[in-house]
Amino acid sequence: NTLRSMYNSNFSIKSDCSLSSAAEKTNQSIISLYVYLVGEGKNYVFSFTVNPDSDELKEYLSKDFVSYNISRGKNIVFIQGIKNSHGMMNSIISAGGIPLFPVVARDGTESFDVLAQNRKAVEGVLESASRHNDVTYSNYDNIGNDNLLAVMSRKQSMIYTMNLTDIEKKVIRKAYKSGYFTWPRDYRLDLMVEDFKLSKPTILYHIRNAERKILKLIMD
């Protein structure tokens, strides 16, 4: 019964923090898997991104990280350290919200998902966020068990699609939602050609490239 009365808020803020700046300048999303308060105005952050230049990252991270460490895997760069907070975690927690991770930084914005026990709490989160930041998008819904699973699946999809180009994301999302992957297909290739005004070989290239990138993250 408790879950049936919970609310989920998702919102984005325009941000000039180091992670958002680094994401914008390197043209890669930065995924923060964990953020927590470690002192007055300080957060511990554990994040990762795909294939940026480490030296270029350092240039932007030094903006508001007090200390940090960058380690490179095969395809992923991990970032962990202490940074000056711009108040979002405090705004969420003080208003009674529960932050859902990951937090995604891209194109000069940061996107958040928050759970709250009631509408008053979730409205308090948005009000607190708006006092200190430029909120560019916000939405909230009453959720139950099934919708909570949908929220978590959407958060997971952010990781799997983070290294896709904009057109790959649009094509693969449209293909999935419209029934291209069902059997028999509800959405044919010729319809995608009409919708995107692209040739069949180009559409197929974007679909297969997106599939390859997603499978690489899952299988590697």
Describe this structure in words.
By secondary structure, the protein is α+β, with helices and mostly antiparallel strands. Helix content is 43%, strand content 33%. Strands 4-5-3-2-6-7-1-8 form an 8-stranded antiparallel beta sheet, with helices on both faces. β2 (30-39) and β3 (42-50) form a beta hairpin. α1 (18-26) packs antiparallel against α2 (54-61), α3 packs antiparallel against α4 (119-132) and α6 crosses α8 (200-219).
Question: What is this structure, in a nutshell?
Answer:
By secondary structure, this protein is α+β, with helices and mostly antiparallel strands. It has helices spanning 18-26, 54-61, 88-94, 119-132, 145-160, 166-178, 189-196, 200-219; strands spanning 6-14, 30-39, 42-50, 65-72, 76-84, 98-106, 109-116, 134-143. It contains eight helices and eight strands; from the N terminus they run βαββαββαββαβαααα.
- The radius of gyration computed from the alpha-carbon positions, rounded to a whole number of angstroms, is 19 Å
Number of helices: 8
* Tally of DSSP β-strands: 8
Mind summarizing the main beta sheet?
Answer: 8 strands, antiparallel
Helical amount: 40-55%
Low-confidence stretches: none
Coarse structural class = alpha+beta
Strand order of the largest sheet: 4-5-3-2-6-7-1-8
Distance between the termini: 39 Å
Percent strand equals 25-35%
Shape call: globular
